[in-house]
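U., I forgot to send this yesterday:
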Amino acid sequence: MMPVRRSQNWLPDVFNDLFDNNWMVKSSATAPAINVIETESEYKVEVAAPGMTKEDFNIRIDEDNQLIVSMEKKQENKEENKESRYLRREFSYTKFQQTMYLPDNVVKDKIGAAMDNGVLTINIPKRTPEEEKKAQRVIEIK
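Result:
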Protein backbone atom coordinates (compact mmCIF):
# COMPACT_ATOMS: atom_id res chain seq x y z
CA MET A 1 0.00 0.00 0.00
CA MET A 2 1.26 3.45 -0.96
CA PRO A 3 0.99 6.29 1.56
CA VAL A 4 -1.15 9.16 0.32
CA ARG A 5 -0.59 12.74 1.35
CA ARG A 6 -3.84 14.49 2.04
CA SER A 7 -3.49 18.21 1.66
CA GLN A 8 -5.59 21.07 0.44
CA ASN A 9 -2.58 22.96 -0.90
CA TRP A 10 -3.48 22.22 -4.53
CA LEU A 11 -5.50 25.43 -4.96
CA PRO A 12 -2.53 27.86 -4.98
CA ASP A 13 -0.78 25.62 -7.50
CA VAL A 14 -3.75 25.82 -9.85
CA PHE A 15 -3.60 29.60 -9.83
CA ASN A 16 0.19 29.68 -10.12
CA ASP A 17 0.09 27.29 -13.08
CA LEU A 18 -2.60 29.38 -14.75
CA PHE A 19 -0.99 32.80 -14.33
CA ASP A 20 2.71 32.01 -14.07
CA ASN A 21 3.60 30.72 -17.50
CA ASN A 22 5.28 31.84 -20.70
CA TRP A 23 2.17 32.21 -22.83
CA MET A 24 0.65 34.93 -20.68
CA VAL A 25 2.45 38.28 -20.87
CA LYS A 26 2.98 39.89 -17.51
CA SER A 27 2.60 43.64 -17.18
CA SER A 28 4.03 45.78 -14.48
CA ALA A 29 1.46 47.62 -12.44
CA THR A 30 3.93 50.34 -11.52
CA ALA A 31 5.25 51.20 -14.98
CA PRO A 32 3.10 53.60 -16.99
CA ALA A 33 2.15 52.80 -20.56
CA ILE A 34 4.25 54.55 -23.22
CA ASN A 35 3.33 55.24 -26.85
CA VAL A 36 5.89 56.39 -29.44
CA ILE A 37 4.45 57.99 -32.58
CA GLU A 38 6.44 59.02 -35.65
CA THR A 39 5.30 61.60 -38.20
CA GLU A 40 7.20 63.24 -41.04
CA SER A 41 8.25 66.15 -38.84
CA GLU A 42 8.58 64.71 -35.34
CA TYR A 43 8.52 61.87 -32.86
CA LYS A 44 5.94 62.04 -30.10
CA VAL A 45 6.25 60.12 -26.83
CA GLU A 46 3.11 59.77 -24.70
CA VAL A 47 3.38 58.58 -21.10
CA ALA A 48 0.14 57.65 -19.33
CA ALA A 49 0.41 58.93 -15.77
CA PRO A 50 -3.00 59.56 -14.21
CA GLY A 51 -2.86 61.48 -10.95
CA MET A 52 0.61 62.84 -11.65
CA THR A 53 1.57 66.45 -12.26
CA LYS A 54 4.33 68.01 -14.31
CA GLU A 55 6.28 68.62 -11.09
CA ASP A 56 6.51 64.84 -10.58
CA PHE A 57 8.47 64.37 -13.84
CA ASN A 58 12.07 64.97 -14.84
CA ILE A 59 13.10 64.79 -18.51
CA ARG A 60 16.72 65.04 -19.60
CA ILE A 61 19.19 63.98 -22.29
CA ASP A 62 22.37 62.33 -21.08
CA GLU A 63 25.84 62.27 -22.63
CA ASP A 64 25.05 59.04 -24.53
CA ASN A 65 22.23 60.71 -26.51
CA GLN A 66 19.52 59.01 -24.46
CA LEU A 67 16.22 60.62 -23.48
CA ILE A 68 15.57 59.81 -19.82
CA VAL A 69 12.06 60.23 -18.46
CA SER A 70 11.77 59.76 -14.72
CA MET A 71 8.89 60.24 -12.32
CA GLU A 72 8.81 60.28 -8.56
CA LYS A 73 5.82 60.93 -6.33
CA LYS A 74 5.57 60.70 -2.58
CA GLN A 75 2.19 60.89 -0.95
CA GLU A 76 1.53 60.74 2.73
CA ASN A 77 -1.83 61.16 4.43
CA LYS A 78 -1.20 62.66 7.82
CA GLU A 79 -3.84 63.31 10.40
CA GLU A 80 -2.37 64.99 13.43
CA ASN A 81 -4.25 64.18 16.57
CA LYS A 82 -2.43 64.40 19.89
CA GLU A 83 -5.15 62.56 21.80
CA SER A 84 -4.84 59.32 19.88
CA ARG A 85 -2.36 57.10 18.11
CA TYR A 86 -2.32 55.75 14.58
CA LEU A 87 -3.93 52.39 14.00
CA ARG A 88 -3.58 52.82 10.27
CA ARG A 89 -1.54 55.36 8.36
CA GLU A 90 -1.36 55.32 4.58
CA PHE A 91 1.43 56.59 2.41
CA SER A 92 2.66 55.73 -1.03
CA TYR A 93 5.85 56.15 -3.00
CA THR A 94 6.02 55.78 -6.75
CA LYS A 95 9.19 55.90 -8.81
CA PHE A 96 9.65 55.22 -12.51
CA GLN A 97 12.42 55.71 -15.07
CA GLN A 98 12.46 54.97 -18.80
CA THR A 99 15.47 55.46 -21.07
CA MET A 100 15.13 55.77 -24.86
CA TYR A 101 17.88 56.23 -27.45
CA LEU A 102 17.34 59.30 -29.59
CA PRO A 103 17.81 58.92 -33.35
CA ASP A 104 20.50 61.02 -35.02
CA ASN A 105 17.94 63.09 -36.96
CA VAL A 106 16.39 64.92 -33.98
CA VAL A 107 16.81 68.56 -32.95
CA LYS A 108 17.71 68.21 -29.28
CA ASP A 109 17.42 71.94 -28.53
CA LYS A 110 13.75 72.02 -29.56
CA ILE A 111 12.44 69.06 -27.54
CA GLY A 112 9.37 70.10 -25.57
CA ALA A 113 6.94 68.48 -23.14
CA ALA A 114 3.43 69.14 -21.87
CA MET A 115 1.15 67.48 -19.32
CA ASP A 116 -2.57 67.26 -20.11
CA ASN A 117 -5.24 65.12 -18.44
CA GLY A 118 -2.79 62.61 -16.98
CA VAL A 119 -0.77 62.19 -20.18
CA LEU A 120 2.77 63.52 -20.50
CA THR A 121 3.51 64.30 -24.15
CA ILE A 122 7.11 64.82 -25.28
CA ASN A 123 7.55 66.35 -28.75
CA ILE A 124 10.87 65.53 -30.40
CA PRO A 125 11.22 67.43 -33.70
CA LYS A 126 13.15 65.93 -36.60
CA ARG A 127 15.68 67.81 -38.70
CA THR A 128 14.51 68.94 -42.11
CA PRO A 129 16.32 67.46 -45.13
CA GLU A 130 18.21 70.77 -45.49
CA GLU A 131 19.33 70.62 -41.86
CA GLU A 132 20.41 67.00 -42.37
CA LYS A 133 22.68 68.05 -45.24
CA LYS A 134 24.18 70.85 -43.12
CA ALA A 135 24.74 68.45 -40.21
CA GLN A 136 26.79 66.12 -42.40
CA ARG A 137 30.37 67.21 -42.43
CA VAL A 138 32.97 66.08 -44.90
CA ILE A 139 36.35 65.49 -43.32
CA GLU A 140 39.25 66.47 -45.48
CA ILE A 141 42.10 63.98 -45.67
CA LYS A 142 45.54 65.61 -45.33
